[in-house]
Structure formats: structure tokens, C-alpha cells
Specification:
104 residues; mainly beta; 4-stranded antiparallel beta sheet; elongated
Length: 104
């Protein structure tokens, strides 16, 4: 059994027991979260349910394990022959969610 969810502008394939990386801060560690934007569900019997755009009454239940930061992204801009250079960067914050159940 698996599901494809949409979170933070990305699509993730999750199964019960997996750890999903959700963009941003969702909740405190140990809290139970529900993700409602389910695009597709494949049940244990092999039946595939696709949404338009979301599957009705489907949700993902999980427990927040903690937060982490992604890799450092460096953005470098330059205009040649002008002496103009600019460096920026950031590290995105992610929340680790352990999927406990897929409810259809």
C-alpha cells in the first residue's frame, strides 16, 4: 500500500513506516499530523484510486520525528566586465514525519 501526496510544492511517494521530508515546520516533535492532499492511493488489494486533483476522504496520518536542514544552496550572480558580483545562499528547513497510516 502506498500513496502519492503533495506537500510544499513537491510530490512524495509514501508508505506506512516511511519517513517523509515535509518542507517547513509542521508541528512539534512527537505530535500527530494529518496530510490531506493525497493525489493517488494504491490499496493492499492492488486497486489504484486517482484523484481529480485530490482523492476524496483520503489522508495520511503520521508522527513528527523532528526537524532537519537541507544542503546549503549557493546563488552566485555576476555581470561580466562590470566588476559586479553577488553571492547569496540559504538552507531550507524540513520536518521529518514518520507515516503511520494511510486512510482511504
Amino acid at each position: 500500500m502506498y500513496a502519492i501526496i503533495q506537500t510544499g510544492g513537491h510530490q512524495l511517494k509514501v508508505s506506512p513506516g516511511d519517513v517523509a521530508r515535509v518542507a517547513g515546520t509542521v508541528a512539534e516533535p512527537g505530535a500527530t499530523v494529518t496530510l490531506e492532499q493525497v493525489l493517488l492511493v494504491e490499496t493492499e488489494g492492488g486497486e489504484v484510486i486517482a484523484g481529480a486533483p485530490y482523492v476524496a476522504n483520503a489522508r495520511i496520518v503520521g508522527v513528527v520525528e523532528g526537524e532537519a536542514r537541507g544542503p546549503k544552496i549557493r546563488v552566485f550572480k555576476k555581470k561580466r566586465r562590470k566588476g559586479q558580483r553577488k553571492t547569496k545562499g540559504h538552507r531550507a528547513v524540513y520536518t521529518r514525519v514518520r507515516v503511520t497510516d494511510i486512510v482511504v
